[in-house]
Amino acid sequence: MPDADLAEDELEITGRITTASNATFLARIGNVVVVYKPVAGERPLWDFPDGDLASREVAACLVSEAFGWNIVPRTWLREGPLGAGMVQLWRDIDPEQDAVDLVPAGAVPAEGWRHVFNGLDNQDRSVTLIHEDSPALRRMAVFDIVVNNADRKGAHVLAMADGHRHGVDHGLTFHVEHKLRTVLWGWLGDELTADELEGIDRVRAQLDGDLGASLAELLTSREITALADRCDRLRQNGRFPAPRGHMPAVPWPLF
Description:
The protein has helices spanning 4-8, 53-67, 135-147, 194-207, 210-215, 221-237; strands at 12-16, 25-29, 32-38, 75-78, 85-89, 100-104, 113-120, 126-132, 157-159, 165-167. The protein is an alpha+beta fold. The strands form 3 sheets. The protein has a 5-stranded antiparallel β-sheet. The protein has a 3-stranded antiparallel β-sheet with strand order 6-8-7, with no helix packed on it. The longest helix is centred in the last third of the chain and has 17 residues, at 221-237.
C-alpha cells in the first residue's frame, strides 16, 4: 500500500501522455511525480470484459511485489480529479539505453542480445527485433508469463541508468485464456534459473495467503485460479514456453 499522503493528498494533473491508447496523465502528489489513469478514461475491450484495467494494473504490481524483483513501480487505486483510477510512481528512464530494439538484419550484436524474429520495416528493409540478454529482462519475461501479459511492447520496458528494468502498462493481464503477447521471446526453450524458479514459488505460496486475499478485491476468482495454474505449469515445465494458440505472439505495434 502507498504511504497515507500518496493515497490521500491532492493529486494535481500536470500534463497528458498522448501516446497512450487510454486516458493517461502525468500528475503530482506534493513533490512526487506519478502517472494517473482514471477508470472513466478506459476504452471498453470485448476480450477483457471483467473489471477494469486500473485494477489489473494494481494486481500486476502486487504480483511483482510477491516475486520480490521490483518489476512494476508502486501502483495503487485512489481518487483523482477525473474520478477513481490507477496511480503509479513515475520512473525516469536512461535515454542512452534500449532494452528492446530493431536493427538491420544481420547486424545483431555478437554478445549480450537475443534474436526474436526477422521482418520488414515500413520501407521494406530487412530488420531484426532483438532484446538484451540480462537477468533483469529475464525476470520480466517470467513475470509476463505468470500474469499472462497480452501487451509487452518494447516501450513498456523502462531502462534505468543502473541497469534495472521496470515494466509498465499492465492493464491487459490475468485473462483466463492464453493471451501472452510479448517482444521478449528470446529465451524460448531455455531452462529457468534457480532464482526464477524461487520467484515463481514465492508467488504461488502467497496466492494461498495475503496475496490471494488482496487479488480477490481486484480480479475474478477464475482469474486467480488461472494465475495459480500458470505458476504450477511454468514451475513444472521449468523452461520458457513457446508461443501457442491462434493469437499473434507479439503485440502491435511492437513499440
